[in-house]
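Q: Predict the bound structure with FE2/S2 (inorganic) cluster.
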Amino acid sequence: MPSSVVTLKVNGRAQEFLTRPGTTLLDALRESLSLTAAKKGCAQGTCGTCTVLLDGKPVFACLVPIETVGERKVETLEGLADGAALHALQESFIENFATQCGFCSSGMIMAAKGLLTANPSPSRTEVVRAISGNVCRCTGYEAIIDAVLAAAAKMKKAAPPRKKAAE
Ligand code: FES
Ligand code: FES
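A: Predicted complex:
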């Protein structure tokens, strides 16, 4: 099948590359753009290691055909840190020992980022629900949930205070 040119907006940057029809977003990120944080675990939507954000919402990149991405913004773990400064989620995963082999960590963190963007003060139950599609074989989930809640608290503290509505 003939290759075609695709443009993806990844981590704030438009990137153009050649791809074959039927390529998944995960394969495009890893093989065409060398963004390898999102991992290929099951390749069938059951492990969550490939989670990235599409317009801020977590998706399993192994299930997304590249042709369907269009103008939507893609965010991967590579775009989280601000230069040498880690994102609060990355810091909290380290501080809470929420990663061991690290295979699930990119997907976990991106699922958590999607949650905290939509809901900056989640309950423990909401965190559990948000990462329920992400499998970890070694850390156990308690440390991961603690890390997400710690990141939420950190981000809240760092956020500028809201202006009061004019009376
Ligand atoms: S690799 Fe995508 S869900 Fe497992
Ligand atoms: S840290 Fe190894 S699978 Fe989660």
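A: The chain has two domains: 4-78, 88-158.
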